[in-house]
Design a protein that fits this description.
The protein starts with a strand and ends in a 13-residue tail after the last helix. The chain has five helices and seven strands.
Length: 172
């Protein structure tokens, strides 16, 4: 499966709990003013990569707690990412998802799109919502503006409503 990728950060401690490999996916429809990654907006930009190659790269990495999908808008490529997400989980790694869509919007999309549903089901944590410059706060763990939420995906999917993720001391 071909995916459009903007970049890889092999080790990060600011894109979710623990040590994470971060995949920046190319293409974003949201166009938030003040976005820190405007080069990721063009869906035809970045480069095409094979998901099998990304998985091999993840398997080679040592000491990871998990993988983070960000962008760009990962859910714009849900059909290519759902299987990769499930394979990452089978490796025993956790998955953090960033999206400009809210959990409620993604839940609605998941009713008609099985790939969105599978991607949500593979995730541990969703950082949701648009980046809003007026809400900018650099002290927040894992996110840039106060409107964005940390969503506990397993509990939220079970409940059918957003359950915020509790940041345990030492995890953020
Ligand atoms: S959703 Fe993220 S990548 Fe897309 S425009 Fe907003 S801040 Fe930028």
């Amino acid at each position: 499966m071909k995916l459009r990728l903007a970049g890889i950060v092999p080790e990060s401690v600011v894109d979710g709990p623990g040590l994470r490999l971060v995949l920046y996916f190319q293409g974003c429809p949201h166009r938030c003013p003040g976005c820190h990654n405007p080069e990721t907006h063009d869906p035809a930009g970045g480069s095409e990569v094979d998901s099998a190659k990304l998985l091999a790269r993840i398997k080679e990495a040592r000491g990871l707690d998990g993988v983070t999908f960000t962008g760009g808008e990962p859910f714009a490529q849900a059909s290519g990412l759902s299987k990769l997400a499930e394979e990452i989980r089978r490796l025993g790694l956790s998955l953090v998802l960033y999206s400009g869509f809210t959990f409620e919007e993604l839940l609605q999309k998941s009713k008609a799109d099985s790939h969105v549903r599978r991607l949500l089901q593979a995730g541990m944590l969703l950082v949701d919502g648009l980046y809003i410059e007026a809400e900018r706060d650099l002290t927040l763990p894992f996110r840039g503006s106060r409107n964005q939420r940390l969503i506990d995906l397993p509990r939220s999917l079970e409940k059918g409503a957003a359950v915020e993720w509790v940041v345990v001391e030492g995890s953020a």
